[in-house]
Amino acid sequence: MNQTIEQLLGHYSVREFEDKPLSEEQIKLLVQSAQAASTSNFVQAYSIIGVSDKSIRRELSKIASNMGYVEKTGQFFVFVADLARNKRIAEAYEASVDSLETTEKFLVSVIDAALAAQNMAVAAESMGLGICYIGGLRNDSKKVSDLLHIPDYAIPLFGLTVGYPLQNSAPKPRMPESLIYHENTYEAKDKELYYAYDDIIRDYYKERTGGVRVEAWTEQIAKGMSKPTRLDLKSFIENKHLGTK
User: Fold this and answer.
1) How far apart are CA 81 and CA 50, in angstroms?
2) Chain-wide mean pLDDT for the chain?
3) Start and end of every Nitroreductase domain (predicted)?
4) Which among 55, 110, 121, 162 is least buried, having the fewest CB atoms inside 10 angstroms?
5) How many Å apart are CA 170 and CA 172, to the nearest integer?
6) Domain boundaries, given as residue ranges, for the chain
7) Are 148 and 59 in contact (CB under 8 A)?
C-alpha cells in the first residue's frame, strides 16, 4: 500500500462542482499527464478538446441528459478517437491511407483515448480535484461532432468533467477480485458469488439513497441488457470512415 494506490482505491465520481475554472497551468498539467499514457506503436491516435465556452457546454449538457455538472465544472474535456491526424500525415507523404478504415486502427484510437483519459483522471484526483466521465455525449454523437467541428476519421467518445468538488462520497463497492481475475484461462464464475455481491450493492444503494433505491447489481445488469441503446452509433462511426473493414 502506498499513496498512489490509496488514491486509486478511494476513487468516486463527483457530480457537484464549484463554478470555478481551472487555471491554465492546471489544464496544461492535466493534458501533459494524459499524454504520458501508453499509446499503441506511439501512434497517439486521440485528441482532447477542452470546452470552456459556456454556451457549448450548455448544448453538450442537453445531449448528456441535462447533466448540470457538464456546464458547471472547472473544465470540461472531450476525448476524441482521432485518425484524421494520421490521414493528413499519410497524405503529406503520399502514402496509402487504406488501413485507417480497419477495425484494428479504430480500436487503437479508442484504446489510446481511454488510456489518456484515465491518466488525466488520476492526475486530477492527485491535485485535489474531482472527476466524472460523461458517456452521455454518445446520446447524439453527430451533434457533438458538429458542435466541436470534429472531422471525418475522428469521433467523440466521452467527456470528462474536472473541477473543485462540492461533494464528498465513498467508493462504490466493486466486484470482489475473485470475480474479475482469472489465472491462465478464462473461468466462468459461480453465480452464487454474484448473488453475494448483490447483497453488498443493495446495502450500498439503500444507505446512499435513504432506502429510495434498493437494487441488486445483477438486476441492474439484466435491466441494462434488455434494451439496446444508441443504435445510431454504428452508422455514425461508419459514416466517419472508421471501423468499416
Assistant:
1) 15
2) 95
3) 10-164
4) 55
5) 6
6) 3-170, 172-238
7) no
